[in-house]
Amino acid sequence: MLLVRRMLIVLVAGGLLSSFLVLGQVAPPNTGKMSWDLFQTVAAGQRKRAVGEEVKTVSALLITTNATTQQNLSALRTLGYTILGAFGQFVMVEAPADYYADPKSGVDAMGFVSNATLPPVTITSASGTTPITNGTPAIGTGQVWAHGYQGKGAKIAVIDAGFNTNDPTLAQLNPTFYSITPTGAGVGSYEAVEGQAAQESEHGTSCAIIAGDVAPKAELYLLSYPTTTGFIGWLCALDYAVHTLGVDVVSTSVEFGYPTCHADGTGPLNEAVDEILAGSDTSLVIAAGNWAQGDGSDRMFYAGTFTDADGDYNHDFTSNTEDTWDRNTLRFSAHEGDHVTVILEWDDWAASVRTQDLDIILYDAKYHVQLAYSQAQQFGNETNPVELFYLNLPYTGDYCISILNHATKWNNQPVQPVSFHLNLFNQGGQFGTVEHHTACGSVREVATNPGVITVGAVSVEDGTVRPYSSCGPTGSGANKPDLYAPDGVTGTLILPFYGTSASAPYAAGAIALVHSIYPDSSKQEELARLQGRKEEVAPASSGDGKSGGAIAQKADTGCTDICGNHIYRLDLTTIIQE
To answer: pLDDT exceeding 90 applies to what percent of the chain?
Structure first.
């Protein structure tokens, strides 16, 4: 840490700090359809090619303008790309790094490709390490079990990056494992290998144990995919669970670093999810995420509207200060070696050609030296309104983020009050302090889809909402999460399982119990029962051979969270009334 600090002092004392500022006055390059991280990777490949060095092969995620066709895949092969997998508007390809910038066969030359990026990071909705469940009694399963309902006749799928196929607790639930691997044979093509997991994961194993613990008689299917396949692998697993296995409920507690919408349930990822679920009776249950807390958390979220009262092209994080630096930056503290992902997304998705363009810059808080930045050119291009970068922090201390209006500074566009979302994910540790953060609207991506069941976290001890549990409203104004379930559960492992990752499989197991009691209920009716809302649903005989009882309705207490979202705590005690 002292060495890095001294280096920064030398930079300032030697006059090199001014060179950073001069660089800031040079217009960034036109990155075309490439994200900033892919652009940098490609540029490095071009430099190696120029001096005769070996150029590494890299994978990239292509996002097509419309649903990918076989003709698109054929065109990519003809151009020399290797197809690793394709689903919906997503295609994973492989090629030498500099090939993506080739004038004739690079991504800018492909009319059917709108965006290209390095494969996005997978983000689990866990906070802490992995345990075995003991929160099952907290949601009232005892009363349901006492009537003989333990999920018989229901099918649960858990989709995660991996599972431990030799875990003894998991073995007691008699699960069936499937490793799902996309192939380049065609759009939506994949291989499903029974009895295998794509990789070992304590996270996935713990989620599976929770779902199976709630509904021990349900058929349990555990689907995993190579993390390198990202969106495509996850979508293939969902497709297999819904259309081949025909499960009643899917539980998943992963999300992805690359945004595809303004947290409003739209965009190509949500469209692919909707297409898979269309016409099925499968409920998709997803963790809400853990973005709401700020201080002391491994991730944080800030929602704002770009404002530049002083005309310096930077967003005003703080309006009531004369200190320009404080006004234009968001400060946070972290530790040396922390691997931090910074994601900026703004509401310009509807435009066919982008009219807004924001950049993000990371600084040392004390010396104001630029440490990292992302400045893809969206204005006038089809490139998605997203900037992101990954960085291993060089020292323990304070850092600052600024948001620059690229379109205003370099393209003479007037400042528009565009809504934006800023997410920071610390994969290596926790943020000590965060100067500005937002809880409301912190749900993102598939968790904002109105057709899925989003699950937030409450304390297993007293049912209070966890401060990190993401909540709505979504970008479209919808109430999310749909349910709240326990986390912080303990069992035979030492450490508790915190995060909405633990909460989602509780809800999935509960849906399996409801399905075993009322097998003819629709997925909308099953959710209504768990929320305690009055619906025109009739009791039915269960898959356990028991007759369904009358529906007991919970009183509407009007309980809401700090953002005004209605809270529905998962409670099975009123599902059956004698």
So the answer is: 77
Token pair listed for 4: 């890095």
Say which CATH class 124-291+442-571 falls into. alpha beta
pLDDT score of 339: 95
Task: For residue 392, give both structure tokens.
Answer: 């291993």
Where does 2-27+295-426 sit in CATH, by number? 2.60.120.380
The CATH 3.40.50.200 domain(s) of the chain lie at 124-291+442-571
Q: For 36-119, which CATH class?
A: alpha beta
Helix locations, 350-450, DSSP H: 406-411
Q: Which residue has the tokens 């990371």?
A: 362
Q: In which band, very low, low, confident or very high, does the pLDDT at 15 lie, cut at 50, 70 and 90?
A: very low
pLDDT at residue 576, rounded to an integer? 75
CA dihedral sign of residues 29, 34, 40, 45: negative
> 453 forms bridges with which residues in the sheet?
285
322 CB neighbour count, 10 Å cutoff? 7
Angle subtended at Cα 143 by Cα 141 and Cα 148, rounded to the nearest 5 degrees: 90
| Both structure tokens of 513 | 């119990």
As a whole number of angstroms, the distance between CA 219 and CA 153 comes to 8
Q: Coil, strand or helix: which one is 359?
A: strand
Selection from 195, 188, 193, 146 nearest residue 174 by Cα: 195
Residues of the chain with CATH 3.30.70: 36-119
pTM, rounded to two decimals: 0.85
User: Count of alpha carbons within 13 Å of 5, Cβ hemisphere only?
Assistant: 9
CATH 2.60.120.380 positions along the chain are: 2-27+295-426
- Asked if the bond preceding 473 is cis, omega within 30° of 0, the reply is yes
